[in-house]
Amino acid sequence: MSLILDEHREYLSDAARMAAYTAAIAEVVRAGDVVLDLGAGTGILGLLACRAGAHRVYAVDAGSMIEVAREVCCANGYEDRVTFVKKLSLDAELPERVDVIIADQIGRFGFDAGILEYFADARSRFLKPEGQLIPKRVRMWVAPVEAAALQNQVEFWLSQPAGFDFAPVRRYAANTGYPCRYAADQLLSAPQLGTALDLAVATDASFDFSASCRIVRAGILHGIGGWFDADLSDGVQMSNSPLSSQAINRRTLFFPVDRPVAVAAGDTVDVRMCVAPTDTLVTWKVAVRGKAAFTHSTWKGMLLSREKLAKTQPNYVPRLTRRGIARASVLGLCDGRTPLASIEEQMLHRYPDLFQSRQQAAVFVTEVVSAYGE
Ligand SMILES: C[S@@+](CC[C@H](N)C(=O)[O-])C[C@H]1O[C@@H](n2cnc3c(N)ncnc32)[C@H](O)[C@@H]1O
After folding, report:
1. CB of 36 closer than 6 A to ligand 1?
2. Scanning 73, 108, 245, 361, which has the fewest C-beta atoms within 10 Å of its C-beta?
3. Is residue 128's pLDDT more than 90?
4. How far is CA 76 from CA 39, 70, 160, 252, 287, in A?
5. What share of the chain in percent tops pLDDT 90?
């Protein structure tokens, strides 16, 4: 079973998403353009660019889907126009600058699939001065939500599964963002704009935003909902908002508060969020004026062992493990002169404690060479 393939089937079968990208690409891509399809997956956005008249498409994907994209491209007769690059965009090099960069690395909340980091890098290294980005702007929206079932996912850890005390885990669970879908009536206020990210200038630096939400009906506040809308182009928007009739099929997020708070129409809920995009860290501070205040952070929800935490301290002196040393040896042997067979042979000879057979050495070498060799 290929879960990756199934994920891409879902992307392709999301009619609202496909319609939005089709329209935006038709609006932005001009005959003769050079296009970067960043995070190509099946290559669909590059194919749409070809159909819109792109002269050349660079389809960049770090994963094995790139082989699927290659086959699909041939099946559609565009192989003379698309160049495939199996690399993370941050590590990729292109032989020319492009007119348009296209990606769907928006995530559920507008920043959480890497678009800020990847576009900032691709913009500076690959985009022509007058080049265009799809999407060009992303907005992050928040609203207080009534979501007892989601809150129960936090409280589950107090339920003594199989009669054991799992209470220590609740602290992590309360500092985690949960993928979810909201019905419109779960929102306790009108959605408030957190921030608008202009991808033509945005960087991957940390940012924060505040929003004040006026409660419109009596209910129980369980947490804060988060989602996005994006301008794929000047004329085409795309969103996963629970209030959008054209919403794409992508989940939103739930950020819990430590305990439910009864709210009434007219109450104000102040939300402040701090976001560190490269580590996908979110801190959320929620104050129900006159009633309660909470601070949570995915930093506190990270499952870092004490040993791992110690390794993040500036005074920590790292040393290579035996496998690390072996890996460094393979990298040293990739000198542009030594054939693969000889590297495998030397590894087997140098590290008999790690490799009992040529086959084992070959697997290890292939892993390193496919990641860092060319
Ligand atoms: C959300 S899917 C989108 C696929 C396709 N563009 C689409 O719209 O259907 C993301 C794909 O991008 C790849 N990916 C994510 N970030 C990347 C990056 N910075 N460089 C290269 N590939 C990336 C993943 O391997 C995955 O195949």
Report:
1. no
2. 245
3. yes
4. 20, 10, 56, 34, 54
5. 93
Q: What is the mean pLDDT of residues 201-229?
A: 98
pTM of the model: 0.88
Answer for the pair 55, 96: CB distance below 8 angstroms, yes or no: no
From the CB of 344, is ligand 1 less than 6 Å away? no
CB-facing half-sphere around the CA of 66: CA atoms within 13 A: 18
End-to-end alpha-carbon separation of the chain, Å?
30
Backbone torsions φ then ψ of 147, nearest 5 degrees? -150, 70
Q: Please report the pLDDT score of residue 263 as a whole number.
A: 98
Whether the Cβ atoms of residue 81 and residue 54 lie closer than 8 Å to each other: yes
The preferred substitution site among 38, 58, 121 for testing ligand 1, maximizing ligand atoms within 8 Å of CB, is 38
Residue identified by tokens 């007769």 is 77
**165 sits in which H/E element:** none
Q: Counting atoms of ligand 1 from 1, which one is nearest the CA of 87?
A: 21
Task: Choose among 93, 18, 96: nearest CA to 56.
Answer: 96
Q: With a 6 A CB cut-off, is 104 part of the ligand 1 pocket? A: yes
Check: CB of residue 248 under 8 Å from CB of residue 221: no
Ligand 1 centroid, distance to 370 Cα (angstroms)? 19
Identity of residue 114: G
Stretch 44-71: mean pLDDT: 97
Mean pLDDT, residues 220-248 taken together:
98
d(CA 57, CA 73): 11
Residue 39 CB less than 6 A away from ligand 1 = yes
Alpha-carbon distance 54 to 367, whole Å?
35
- Listed residue (187, 262, 182) closest to 218, CA to CA: 262
Compute the distance between CA of residue 241 and CA of residue 232 in angstroms, rounded to an integer: 15
89 lines ligand 1 (CB under 6 A): yes
62 within ligand 1 shell (Cβ under 6 A): yes
By most ligand atoms within 8 Å of CB, the mutation choice from 13, 105, 112, 121 for ligand 1 is 105
Which structure tokens are listed for 154? 């936090």
- 108's CB contacts (< 8 A; 6+ apart) are 179, 226, 227, 228, 240, 250, 251, 252, 253
Residue 163: pLDDT above 60?
A: yes
